[in-house]
Write a structure and sequence with these properties.
It is built from 3 helices and 8 strands; from the N terminus they run βαββαββββαβ. By secondary structure, it is of the alpha/beta class. The termini are far apart.
Length: 146
């Protein structure tokens, strides 16, 4: 079993490196501003002591006022984990940077989120529907989907 790192402690270290990047933190997770997502993710993957070399999962939640995308990161080297979140505002064209360049395992997971929630990932190498057919109207996991 991995040791879950404190979101508050990691947020304090990230705030030193990227001032203004943290929206909030709690004992079990942290929320990063979307414009800092790629820089923070790169830092968490490549910095000695963190070494988050494995992306266990990505998911998205529709809170009606915003979408929250949740990243479960794991360091196989140090046997620790972290839950990192970010938010997208606006329902017309929500976008985030893709993390496929950091973790290849994000490929299908970002496509799933795009397909079912309608969140685009800038820089994704093959962003297209994965479950539903091209031409399907809407995103069925959104709360406003009829």
């Amino acid at each position: 079993m991995t040791l879950a790192l404190s979101g508050k402690e990691i947020a304090a270290k990230l705030e030193e490196q990227f001032p203004g990047s943290i929206v909030e933190s709690c004992p079990n997770s942290l929320v990063v501003k979307s414009e800092f997502l790629l820089a923070v993710a790169t830092f968490l993957k490549t910095t000695h002591g963190f070494d988050f070399d494995y992306l266990a999962s990505i998911t998205a939640v529709d809170y009606q006022d915003y979408f929250e995308v949740v990243y479960h990161l794991t360091s196989l080297k140090h046997n620790h984990s972290l839950v990192m979140k970010t938010r997208c505002y606006g329902r017309d064209n929500p976008k985030l940077p893709s993390v496929v360049g950091l973790w290849r395992g994000a490929d299908f997971q970002e496509r799933e989120i795009y397909d079912l929630m309608g969140i685009s990932f800038d820089g994704h190498p093959n962003l297209k529907r994965i479950f539903l057919w091209e031409g399907f109207h809407g995103h069925p996991l959104r709360k406003d989907y009829l």
